[in-house]
Batch of 2 targets.
Target 1
Amino acid sequence: MSHRILIIEDDPQIRRTVDIACQAHGYATDVAGDGAEGLAKAQKGSADLIILDIGLPRMDGLELCRNLRQSHQTPIIFLTARNDEIDRVLGLELGGDDYVSKPFSPRELLARIAAVLRRGAQGQSDDALRIGGLTLHLGRHAADFNGTPIDLTRREMGILMTLARRPQQVFPRPALVDQVYGIGTDVSDRTLDSHLRNLRAKLVAAGCTDGIETLHGIGLRIGACRGA
Ligand code: CA
């Protein structure tokens, strides 16, 4: 049985391009041109995956997502047009979801669709990020180190996920603040330090003594997370 994809996009040309690409790939499709219509169709629950533009009339994509998540867990691939939209999408702490930035090629989008559908078919087991002994359960805002649960606040989880998603990358503090708290948010050094201190203490308490590396004067990076 072919998967059904709901495309919610107000730009007729992009909507049509995505629709044609999906159909050519063998997916059944449904389309909506604004947020209210999109939410109504999404709530029917017949779609296996939703392609969701952020900038939409009558209800933007993020609000649609918030509404839909109260009752449905249909995976979503967001279409983002601007950097600040990407940050807001990342702020959702995506579980099985993903995003594609405009402009994108139909081929790139189809690859993401296939990956998200594949993850869904494997159940929730893949909905986790692993670094050494540290596991971040993305959908549940939960973490553990070698099986020991770590109780994290939303901000602490945000910091850890931001670092863990790009394990090679060193995040200067302002970049980390933008990712975790939202771009342009005025977060004092003290606030970030206090969240980092609490986060480190919780990691260490669970045995993860090398969870976060500080490169002085440069920034922060996820550690090897192998423990002592
Ligand atoms: Ca739009």
Target 2
Amino acid sequence: MSARTRVGVVVSGAGSNLTALLDACDTPGFPAEVVLVLSNRRQCGAIDIARSRAVEVLSLPVGDFGGDSLARDRALVDALRAARVELPVCAGYNRVFSADVLTAFPDILNVHPSLLPAFGGGMNAVEDALAVGVKVTGCTVHLLASGAVDAGPIVLQAAVAVHEDDDVDTLRARIHEQEWRLLPHAVELWATGRLQRDGTVVHVLPSPRVREQAR
Ligand code: GRF
């Protein structure tokens, strides 16, 4: 019986994806556990959820670092290492990591509420999809790429049909339901060695490969 993958979740928002991941981790046999929740906020819904589920929380507002986001990111890397996190996961994190974070952790999962590469690069993916009248949108779990926002090898995607009477809230709610399914699945795939990175592409392997020596 191998140890479970140690996950650190980075958050800024309501925390519904964090809840989905914590619920998955509570499922018998799930190959990962959330050992730390990090936030750029002092307070947010996701922090409350982590505390209510007895997960260690660390708040790293940039103000505590004199506004120096590089210094904040160094503290974030230190905290992830101290907690022996193997896989960081961004679940509604509203900041962009500096290159140092990606150097320390080449594999970081992120969830985004659109079918990337459409509607990347901002916080308004659902609004923007409605504004141009797409008939299908969805969500994406991808690995972060250094120096790019909402870009990097795509791990999983789910399509969501846009209804004629959708508004931002109704469409976001259906996208969220798919995110709650996809994100834990992506963590499971990573933890069981089923993601193979090949340049700009991630292949989902049918069976686990032997994971390379940990960084
Ligand atoms: C999600 O829609 C995610 O795709 C985006 O931020 C939102 C976070 O929602 N990056 P929650 O905080 O997990 O409820």
